[in-house]
Design a protein that fits this description.
Blueprint: E1 4-10, H1 16-22, H2 27-32, E2 35-39, E3 52-58, E4 61-63, H3 64-76, E5 77-83, H4 85-89, H5 102-112, E6 130-135, E7 145-147, H6 154-165, E8 170-173, E9 176-179
Parallel strand pairs: 1-2, 1-3, 3-5, 5-7
Antiparallel strand pairs: 4-6, 8-9
Amino acid sequence: MGKIRFASVWLGGCSGCHMSFLDLDEWLIDLAELVEVVYSPIADAKVFPSNVDVTLIEGAVCNEDNLEVLHTIRERSRLLVSFGDCAVTGNVPAMRNPLGDVDPILQVVYVEAADAQGQYPVESGVVPPLLPRVRPVHECVRVDAFISGCPPSADRIKAALEAIVAGETPHLTGSQLKAG
């Protein structure tokens, strides 16, 4: 059997989950023998590939670009894992949801609080349009497994990845991660 085609993605979040992933330290060498990293912010690939076996998604769905790339990822990934509390619940990025409409927020941040010449960043490619509400990944696409934590510990990530490379789908039960 060939290597598992592995991807990780960072949407709206702080990159703490990827930092925790790097805390796997020496086990990353063992993992590298089992997976081929085909996409990751760590590898800096530009286009999400086809036929990905497993994708870990960090971060909430905050803007139109996040939503667009998420649909592409779901379409091209066999197993999709919400990776960390922002992806699982919306967490910190979703703290803007109770504030309601994004237009008044943008007005304050980009116009009223600007030092000089305040204006909305509307030019294409500068700032992607915000969604009306920040959403966890599973509200937008089907998710196969969840790794909670802010960020999840390296031990939780390792347990999930060990299940995945063994051909199992990881499932959280209480505070334990079990394969099933």
